[in-house]
Hints:
Distance between the termini of chain B: 37 Å
Number of strands of chain A: 11
Shape of chain A: globular
Low-confidence stretches of chain B: none
Strand content of chain B: over 45%
Largest sheet of chain A: 6 strands, mixed
Number of strands of chain B: 13
Largest sheet of chain B: 7 strands, mixed
Mean pLDDT of chain A: 91
Mean pLDDT of chain B: 93
Structural class of chain A: mainly beta
Structural class of chain B: mainly beta
Oligomer: heterodimer
Radius of gyration of chain B: 13 Å
Amino acid sequence: QKEVEQDPGPLSVPEGAIVSLNCTYSNSAFQYFMWYRQYSRKGPELLMYTYSSGNKEDGRFTAQVDKSSKYISLFIRDSQPSDSATYLCATYTGGFKTIFGAGTRLFVKA
Amino acid sequence: KAGVTQTPRYLIKTRGQQVTLSCSPISGHRSVSWYQQTPGQGLQFLFEYFSETQRNKGNFPGRFSGRQFSNSRSEMNVSTLELGDSALYLCASSLVTGGQTDTQYFGPGTRLTVL
């Protein structure tokens, strides 16, 4: 079993839709949770960063962590074609190694 | 503040050759990690360096090696290249607080093609 599981998609939605991206993790020691966005042929860029359970909002993006079920989510409101990218969830315990999900490819159709 | 830079951005090599990739972290970041990204395997952790010491290593053969210099710049080397080494190699830098690595920031990557 992988430490972080993420459905690779692809996920295709119409412009303006609410997008829900999800990951599950296996190690309850994980404390820090991140979402990265990666455009084609570019490096991942940090989108959201959360510590502990709860919600964090940044513009159209909301990151949600549920430690009881080991579930992390990223919601994108009013999705735009420019949101089309691969979204990677990631987590670490505060140690030396960050663990990434496989990434979900998102297509937002105009 | 300048981001993470990686050179070269593209490389084409043939089987059996060796290659060296370079990474300059964000100013003040002392931890540098390397990843290999392929369509089939996703992001695979190679190794992490802090204060010129390798602190953690992924499950890659000994052909993959790295080092870090006193200015935190890092290089990774792949010897005896194989076709399967074709990938995007990403470098990420982060602050270290209390000996622990903070959030990582990625460079644009070096795309290596092995023919």
